[in-house]
Amino acid sequence: MPLQNRVSPFGEWFTTPARGLLMGNRGGRLHDAQRKLGARRWTSRQWICCKLEFNDRHRKVWGDSYTELFFLDEVTALAAGHRPCFECRRHDAERFAALLSGGKKRARAGAMDEVLHRERLDGKAKRVHRRAIDGLPDGAMIAMEGEAFAVRGTHLLRWTPQGYSGSRLRPRGDEVDVLTPPSILKVLAVGFSPLWHPSANSFLPSPF
Q1: Which of 74, 88, 97, 169 is most solvent-facing, going by the fewest CB within 10 Å?
Q2: Cα–Cα distance between 208 and 197 in angstroms, integer?
Q3: Per-10-residue mean pLDDT for the chain, 208 residues long?
Q4: What string of DSSP letters covers 128-175?
Q5: Which 3 state secondary structure label does DSSP give 71?
Q6: Per DSSP, what are the bridge partners of residue 148?
């Protein structure tokens, strides 16, 4: 039976048999011996996203250690407020930190986690940020009509647990509710390229 271990762009945990491209955690163990969740959804400010495979490690999901989470792709993980892991995704994490620092001394993991924790949560609820849609970078995720959409070029791609399903033209001149935290928007805007689910490529313009 599938566990409640998939994370949406809204930061909500849900159950689905569909596989994602990345895993992650929120600092520790949140499940009990019967692999059931309690009320908590994080144990620390260290929310990370990781590779599915690393150094031939094998784990029992929701075993004796931390509570593993899974994401459709990195665009989803970033919207939920997770950053790249410095162990299994060292190159991506170093680039993410350097871009966030804006040419200054590279931000340390703990400092980034402090900032991101303030930006991703409003109490225990997901924090959204009102922004002009025109200035949003590719990879940003927004909420519209109760659903999540990813910004990609001139279009918005509709997010589903199985992949991106359908697109619409990105409107102009509107303000929208942005799910991706502002610091992550900054990193996307200056060149960080997140991992997209392959279904997003179905909506790329034809080269012919």
Answers
A1: 169
A2: 23
A3: 92 93 95 93 96 84 93 98 97 95 86 96 94 97 97 96 95 96 97 96 68
A4: -EEEEGGGPPTT-EEEETTEEEEEETTEEEEEETTEEEEEEEPPSS-E
A5: strand
A6: 143
